[in-house]
Amino acid sequence: MHQKDFDSWNKKKIKLDAKPNDGVFFYEKEVWWVSIGHNIRFEQDGKGSEFARPVLVLRKFNKFLFLGVPLSSTKKLGKYYSSFVYKDGQESAALLSQLRAYDSNRLIDKDGVIDDRNYQMIQKKIAKIINQKPVK
Question: What predicted TM-score, i.e. pTM, was given to this entire model?
């Protein structure tokens, strides 16, 4: 199994936490590169020195906090994924099972905006997952 460098991520996270909030403006339907870090086991990781990956802003709670869905350029199938075409015909997959809250200090760069149809499709799939009967 690949050994993760949690110490480097922790140093980065300390810097993100100490960074003054410079009033980054973000909105729903936007895709941002976000420092999501190194996470454990099956949780999605970021890549590179920023520990980043693209994340769709699904719901903006306020100027500091949003609900986001990480994206992948690898084709994914199943009820916990939502595939769509994004930017220059690039196939993307929303990793619905990785839905979580993010602080705006994690935002790096805006990558683009998805269209209304795909945004609504992702919302519907998440609502279906959340509203299904619990697994016993």
Answer: 0.85
